[in-house]
Design goal:
The protein is of the alpha+beta class. It has two domains: 1-31, no CATH class; 36-79, no CATH class. The protein is built from one helix and five strands; from the N terminus they run E-E-E-E-E-H. It has one helix at 59-79, and strands at 3-5, 12-17, 20-25, 36-39, 46-49. The strands form two sheets. It has a three-stranded antiparallel β-sheet with strand order 1-2-3, with no helix packed on it. Strands 4-5 form a two-stranded antiparallel ribbon. It is elongated, with a radius of gyration of 21 Å.
Amino acid sequence: MPKSVGSEIGEMMHHITPRCTITLHKASFMSSNLYIPKTCKHCGKAFTARTTVTKYCSDMCAKREYKARKRNEKVQATLV
């Protein structure tokens, strides 16, 4: 069973399991307090972004946009 050391906020936290050690930094300043109203570049739906670089309302829209972009690149490559 994994052991945890350091449970206070701001401390380093170590999970020790057989064959691996994972170090996580628990800090209260890491969370975003941003709420930016944006429009999804794929479906056009309004959503609230938590970072300044978010372009899509969901992972599904991001994947669909990527697939559409790659499909268009292939079509353009065959037309040239």
